[in-house]
Amino acid sequence: MKGEMVVETPAKGSVTTSLVCLRCPISMFGRDFVIDLVCLPLTGMDVIFGMNWLEYNRVHINCFSKTVHFSSAEEEGEVELLSTKQMKQFERDGILMYSLMAQLSLENQAVVDGLPVVNEFPEVFPDEIPDVPPEREVEFSIDLVPGTKPVSMAPYRMSASELAELKKQLEDLLDKKFVRPSVSPWGAPVLLVKKKDGSMRLCIDYRQLNKVTIKNRYPLPRIDDLMDQLVGAKIFSKIDLRSGYHQIKVKDEDMQKTAFRTRYGHYEYKVMPFGVTNAPGVFMEYMNRIFHAFLDKFVVVFIDDILIYSKNEEEHAEHLRIVLQVLKEKRLYAKLSKCEFWLREVSFLGHIISGSGIAVDPSKVDAVSQWETPKSVTEIRSFLGLAGYYRRFIKGFSKLALPLTQLTCKGKPFVWDAQCESSFNELKRRLTTAPVLILPKPEELP
What we know:
By secondary structure, the chain is an alpha+beta fold. Among the domains are: about 5-70, no CATH class; about 220-250 and about 275-360, Reverse transcriptase/Diguanylate cyclase domain (Alpha-Beta Plaits); about 360-435, 2-Layer Sandwich (Alpha-Beta Plaits), CATH 3.30.70.270. Helices cover about 30% and strands about 20% of the residues. It has helices at about 50-55, 85-90, 110-115, 160-175, 205-210, 225-230, 280-290, 315-330, 360-370, 375-390, 395-405, 420-430; strands spanning about 5-10, 15, 20-30, 30-40, 60, 65-70, 180, 190-195, 200-205, 235-240, 260, 265-270, 300, 305-310, 340-345, 345-350, 350-355, 355-360. The protein has a 4-stranded antiparallel β-sheet. A 3-stranded antiparallel β-sheet has the order 7-12-11, with helices on one face. A 3-stranded antiparallel β-sheet has the order 16-17-18. Helix 10 (about 375-390) runs antiparallel to helix 11. The protein is globular. The chain starts with a strand and ends in a 14-residue tail after the last helix. It comes from Medicago truncatula (Barrel medic). GO terms for molecular function: peptidase activity; RNA-directed DNA polymerase activity; RNA-DNA hybrid ribonuclease activity. Its EC number is 2.7.7.-, 3.1.26.4. This is Putative nucleotidyltransferase, Ribonuclease H.
């Protein structure tokens, strides 16, 4: 090669060469290739294959099993698609055809196939919830304060684009049989809220219904209690149920109370909706029932988030199989894109958990470090809510936060003084430098 070439490598950084070997024969995993190679002064490796070559040769690398697989176009099942014009011509020619409804999915079956134990339970990870929930030990009910009369509110105003999105989501809910047309005297308004990925979430404003609902006092677990169960754990898997609330049925007599009003009609939920006051407690009760025998042994659950933890890989295979078998038997479905398996370190409920201990999730630390000085009691409560969630990482948290806590007292004038500023800044500093909490070893426990 005329002249020199500077190449960036993962091993030595920038290296310079002027040598190129054309059409070199390479044999790998029983297959032969001819490839052009750039000669580099590297030791400890024979060849570095670039991404373009790997893609062109259809190379699949399974990091977990440490295997490499070459697939052909035939193996990947490529299908030649017909245009509408071609299909109509075939139809006129009397050619026998079959119609197949297909759906593209990011949650590829290949992902499940590559995960040990998980690949035994593909039915737990469908692209969509396949049907309305079966009869379960728990149903969602809405008990009202005696003397309550139905409340109905006018729909909120929406833009043209919001109405189009509302119509689309309503059709989806109807297709899934999660809602049905209603003649209920109840009626809550709806609104669309933008999610992190830019898509819109349909939300029902159930505030008026929640005011007159008798509260379910079923307890949600304390986060620190859940974390304390992870003593000695080194391998983790996390399962997030797909639209968990929608996998619980509403009692027939209470469906009318979930009714909501829209520009396109009046509907009511057949499955437990988001936004109703007792939904978290009802779902938590059901999860505790079905996992009761395994709780705090190798499973912790917070509403629809399930964490499986084990001391080694052999144990974890058994524990993961038990949990997935329960989900299969109960016809509960998970969202594969939000699940993680066979991890040495996992993010769970705002914490980073590993065999070394428990740390604050860095994304939460960033939120704290960028928090501006509160200008109202509401803003103070928001900050204390986040900071208080991690109070176990801050020694003397209550004393340190006292100047801010006092400002939230009823009748207390809002005066931001030097003590408040000092408390605010010190809490931020402590959270952004929070230590890793080491859980005691099993033999150290009383």
